[in-house]
UniProtKB/TrEMBL annotation, chains A, B:
Keywords: DNA-binding. SUPFAM superfamilies: Homeodomain-like, Tetracyclin repressor-like, C-terminal domain. Transmembrane segments: none annotated. Residues 7-67 form the HTH tetR-type domain. Gene3D superfamilies: Homeodomain-like, Tetracycline Repressor, domain 2. It comes from Arthrobacter echini. InterPro entries: Homeodomain-like_sf (IPR009057), HTH-type_TetR-like_transc_reg (IPR050109), HTH_TetR (IPR001647), Tet_transcr_reg_TetR-rel_C_sf (IPR036271). The keyword Protease does not apply. This is TetR/AcrR family transcriptional regulator. Residues 30-49 bind DNA. Pfam families: TetR_N. GO terms for molecular function: DNA-binding transcription factor activity; transcription cis-regulatory region binding.
Length: 242, 242
DNA sequence: TAGCACCTATAACGGCGCTATATGAAGTGG
DNA sequence: CCACTTCATATAGCGCCGTTATAGGTGCTA
């Protein structure tokens, strides 16, 4: 066996491909760029990966492993719905951290290349949802819930990726997340305010109020008052500190 | 002027490109295939479209025009929410009818190529939502609602496209549609809090935020700030009856 | 008829994914 | 120490791709 671990060129190819993919803003990366960056000649690439697609499959597999590791690192707190929120946010964050990789993983979807990524993510999410179902929090089957949540999660992430970093606002994510979750599960008991430090209910309410104020300006507040009020509202809704 | 309408080669190129794109299951289409199918030589393509990308842009523009025409053909019934459902379903249907075109239009998203498609679709949807807002059915701004709905709509459509036709089930679409819609709008007048005139959404949101703030104080606002904020919040929610 | 846009074709360039073939390095049995 | 096998890397090149410099044809205007 090859117990003497020194697969330098293969690893260099993987790293080079991943780096070039991450840098190239959507443009395609050529095998010549990759082999040159890895200081290797063409046949080496094909010896190890068979194909350009094989190489990128390996890159995607690595990224997907990282994604799954992050997902698995989210512990099962006692509150399944809160767990779902964290998984959603983690998904979005991964997409924003590795946009190019994410596009290959979730945006490119060719009919049957899919299983390795979307299907696995779906299965994992379904597992989390089974815990929610066990806590009698689900209104639909875990399978259906997983598909709906994942679809919306991907849609939101793709939209956020396609926006420039400055215009990007996570309100879209929070809002859509709560929409899908509340349709799929009953959120805890009647008391909407959470007991954890995350306090998403406050954020959601603030966002809703802010949105409502956009379309109808109340006459109870003067102009300057309203301006300051909106600023504070935005401060509240833009992510609770630590 | 070119009043003698006979732009045969340009049209043939467009048609050939569209046909080949629709047939090719995700695989890339070469200019040589296209020019051969259009019975034209290479320079003709570049004379008319400048670029391979320019040609596909034209194809996408045609498909997008068809999409928008279908969207516009949906009349404004008296019920804005029902209209939104129809627009959602039309979006999904277009994606399933022209999967390859749809992937280019909504799945490929390179940072700045986007405007011509997603942004326009978003603007159109926002317009429909403005009608809902005028009927006091919206809980958030039309802009935010449009983004959320469109993101979920795209996510669902991409997921459906990536599935084989037999496993495909529209339950996913209906379920997610209702989830997003019910989070963004109040369906009909079932909600007793909403009276059709005035600005109830603001009041409702203000009350909700106030309730949430009672149990968890955010650290983004200082003590005095929070005090004033709450006072204003109270002023907004206690608006005297019309 | 000459000139002038416009449109199309011939032929080729450089870059791409990929590979037939050869060379080196490392371990094994005689 | 030497064949011999096995794996890993390199040389050189094939055919396809997107693209273009150049030239030829076509029909209108003067």
């Amino acid at each position: 066996m090859k117990s003497t671990g020194d697969p330098a060129p293969k690893l260099r190819l993987l790293r080079a491909a991943a780096a070039l993919l991450a840098e190239s803003d959507g443009a395609s990366v050529s095998t010549r760029q990759i082999t040159e960056a890895a200081k290797v000649t063409a046949p080496t690439l094909y010896h190890h990966f068979g194909d350009k697609e094989g190489l990128f499959d390996a890159v995607v597999a690595e990224g997907f492993a990282e994604y799954l590791a992050a997902e698995r690192s989210i512990p099962a707190s006692g509150q399944p719905i809160e767990d779902l929120r964290r998984h959603w946010d983690n998904h979005v964050q991964f997409g924003l951290d590795h946009p190019q990789l994410y596009l290959v993983m979730f945006g490119n979807i060719r009919p049957e290349r899919r299983p390795s990524t979307v299907a696995t993510a779906e299965a994992f999410l379904e597992e989390v949802l089974r815990r929610a179902a066990a806590a009698s929090r689900l209104v639909v089957t875990p399978h259906e819930a997983a598909r709906s949540i994942l679809a919306a999660n991907i849609g939101v992430t793709l939209m956020l990726i396609s926006e420039t970093a400055e215009k990007r606002s996570l309100e879209l994510s929070v809002m859509t997340r709560e929409a899908v979750l509340s349709a799929v599960a009953t959120d805890s008991e009647a008391d909407p305010v959470t007991d954890t430090e995350g306090t998403p209910a406050v954020v959601v309410a603030a966002i809703a109020l802010n949105a409502a104020l956009q379309s109808s300006h109340p006459d109870q507040l003067s102009g300057p008052e309203l301006k300051l009020f909106l600023e504070w509202l935005h401060r509240i809704s833009s992510r609770s500190g630590s």
